[in-house]
Design brief:
There is one protein chain. The protein has two domains: about 190 residues, DHBP synthase (Alpha-Beta Complex), CATH 3.90.870; about 80 residues, no CATH class. Helices cover about 30% and strands about 20% of the residues. It is of the alpha/beta class and about 300 residues long. α1 crosses α5, α2 packs across α7 and α7 packs parallel to α8. The strands form three sheets. An eight-stranded mixed sheet has the order 2-3-7-4-6-5-9-10, sandwiched between helices. Strands 11-14-12-13 form a four-stranded parallel sheet. It starts with 6 loop residues before the first strand and ends in a 6-residue tail after the last helix. The chain binds threonylcarbamoyladenylate and magnesium ion. Magnesium ion binds next to loops. The site of magnesium ion (MG) has 3 residues, from loops.
């Protein structure tokens, strides 16, 4: 990613308008929430979400939290059961993230959920993030606004030190109130499960770590059902080939070899490959630079031999 000038604007109408303009162009922008500063992009634009990962230099894709204005906006693309509704009604806007089932045929980019059928949503209480959500009119995907491996930013200068030169704008509203990330609770059927402790204490203890028997079995990771072969330059019999660059394939992550486009299409094409009536999947070589490292990380996990079951 080429170096760019990172502007820091104090929170106000001008900063919000500029942030909304950049987000409309598919750029990620740093904006405070009541927990930590987030790096926000249009959750309906896969390439914009890919640019979050590019800016953070994150070597893997984790599902991101989708920020919404309120429960009404959340239920445009998710299903809340009664218990989840009660929690949202009681704690939103605020530092509570709920993992809920995603509806089908909704415009949320598959890179946001890293291909999962569930999604993390929260309605933040901070006026800057609220103003940005109002101005954009769409849900915003936002992880904490720090480079991979660095601590979460609670002030604009933390963001600047970590992501300066990699993002166009930081909206500065001073230190955040909580300073730790939101509480995450899964409400996907069965008892509620605490996945990450945070500012809101619901009296739940952290869900017991589940034994990982195979890549993709962990709740927060998607992997295709079928065997997957990497570094394929041509399909072998029975394989559905996902191409890239000069390898055309049955479908292509990016015919022009663009890694932002490839990241944006990765999970949708893995799902598509799983649905074909061919027993195996092959994927063309992806260069290990920039977003390619995160793409390869996910593909290597998907290709690793499966455990029992
Ligand atoms: O306070 C916060 O939550 C901040 C602000 C910016 O809102 N955001 C934040 O996002 O901490 P992030 O991306 O750093 O953490 C999101 C966490 C990750 O640990 C991810 O694995 C989990 O949420 N997560 C997201 N979707 C999930 C899903 N469908 N199932 C399980 N875990 C999920
Ligand atoms: Mg984080």
């Amino acid at each position: 990613m080429s170096a760019q000038n990172t502007r820091v604007l104090p929170f106000g109408p001008e900063a919000v308008a500029e942030a909304a303009r950049l987000i409309g162009e598919g750029q990620p922008v740093a904006v405070p929430t009541e927990t930590v500063y987030g790096l926000a992009a249009d959750a309906t634009n896969g390439e914009a979400v890919a640019r979050i990962y590019a800016a953070k230099g994150r070597p893997s894709f984790n599902p991101l939290i989708v920020h919404v204005r309120n429960l009404d906006q959340a239920t445009e693309f998710t299903s809340f059961d009664e218990e989840a509704c009660e929690l949202a009604t009681r704690y939103w806007p605020g530092p509570l993230t709920l993992i809920v089932p995603l509806k089908e045929n909704i415009p949320i980019a598959s890179l946001v959920t890293a291909g999962l059928a569930t999604v993390a949503v929260r309605a933040p209480a901070h006026p800057a993030m609220q103003a940005l959500l109002d101005a954009v009119g769409r849900p915003l995907a936002a992880p904490s606004a720090n480079a991979s491996g660095r601590i979460s930013p609670t002030r604009a200068d933390h963001v600047l030190a970590s992501l300066g030169g990699r993002i166009p704008l930081i909206v500065d509203a001073g230190p955040t109130r909580h300073g730790i990330e939101s509480t995450i609770v899964a409400a996907t059927g069965g008892p509620l499960r605490l996945l990450r402790p945070g500012p809101i204490d619901l009296g739940l203890s952290v869900a017991a770590a589940r034994v990982i028997e195979a890549p993709g079995q962990l709740e927060s990771h998607y992997a295709p059902e079928k065997p997957l072969r990497l570094d394929a330059r041509a399909a072998e019999p029975g394989e559905w080939l996902i191409g890239f660059d000069a390898v055309a394939g049955d479908v292509s992550l990016s015919p022009s070899g663009d890694l932002v486009e490839a990241a944006a299409r990765l999970f949708a094409l893995l799902h598509e490959a799983d649905r074909q009536d061919r027993p195996a999947i092959a994927v063309a070589p992806i260069p290990e630079q920039g977003l390619g490292a995160a793409i390869n990380d996910r593909l290597r996990r998907a290709a690793a031999p499966r455990g029992r079951g």
